Amino acid sequence: SAATAAYPALRGDPAQPLTPHLLGVEQSNTNVRFDRQLLMKLFRRLEPGINPDLEIGTFLTERAHFAHVPPVAGALLYHPGAGVEPATLAIVQGFVPNRGDAWRYALDALAEYLARADGPLDLPEGSLLDLAAGPIPAAAGERIGPFLDSARLLGQRTAELHLALASDPDDQAFAPEPFTGADRRHLHEEMSALTGRIMDLLRANVAGLPEAALPEARAVLAQEQAILQQFDALLAGEISALRIRIHGDYHLGQVLVAGDDFMIIDFEGEPARPLAARRQKRAALQDVAGMLRSFHYAAYAAYFDTVDRVADDAALLENWARYWHRWVSAAYLQSYLEVARGAAILPASEAELAALLDAFLLEKAVYELGYELNNRPHWVRIPLQGIQQTARAAQ
What we know:
Helix content: 40-55%
Strand order of the largest sheet: 1-5-6-4-3-2
Distance between the termini: 53 Å
Number of helices: 15
Order of helices and strands: EHEEEHEEHHHHHHHHEEHHHHH
Strand content: 5-15%
Largest sheet: 6 strands, antiparallel
Radius of gyration: 22 Å
Number of strands: 8
């Protein structure tokens, strides 16, 4: 076991016993709360080497002093023997009182918002970057309500997180690094290979999709080469943005609503990926794209739920869901760019920023398409739309 300097304050009086409570939430790890003092997360997938959740959490707690993540109190490590790196069995963090995650918060806000749908809304034109470049209309704030300000705050916290992760040029594990030609080729190969696999999966399953999804599925299949060509922008020139450690699996479910603010959690990355891949430095915009896709998912999850429960006009409700997604995403992105503007984690030009963000949005939507084809075919329209919208915006 190993404790951080934060442990004594987080633990409290050592003479006071702490009662464990197993958290019955559906997660990829086992979580045990010790009263309202500590939370222990036990990892189910073990590999030699430090888990990114421990590595990043400790850095943010002890080095960057970033206040919007649970502070790390310590860890349990397994030492198999000489010559083998210890594996991280568990991480212990300060317990964060919260009102649930931002996914549930968004769905609750959307349920109230869609209940007010009383006529079609004019959907904004252009890419999300186009919308983020201008003022958010007052009418959008009036219709969407407090969640628009929450999206702005989350954009700010995301940028602050990335700046904190890029703050130590002397720590080899966290020092920002340039994108080399090999890095760009590797990223391009990853995106292209993923797209090829998922398009093959879509072709094999298209006949069994819900009828409402068929036009979008066929349109996406027809765009396969255009999507692959969009990834070619990664090879067309240098990527000026520096690579940093990022969250790696960033979405609304990885954010807790703590009072009137947010706490960002779960830095282990996608557990199915090898540990070495999860520890690689990547573009900060990959996290941004993940959150933008999460807003799209929230809007449609709420839309599907509302249509299933009430006999209202489905087209009207979808129009309102798309309006919410567009302006909430624009507010988040606008705030992120305002805080991170000028930092080396962002591309130097607007054209490069657009190309890189679109590539990550497309990659994420393609990944989601594979997930939905295998698990929730009735939700397949969400990533299909994401692919189409991003491909159109990049043209």
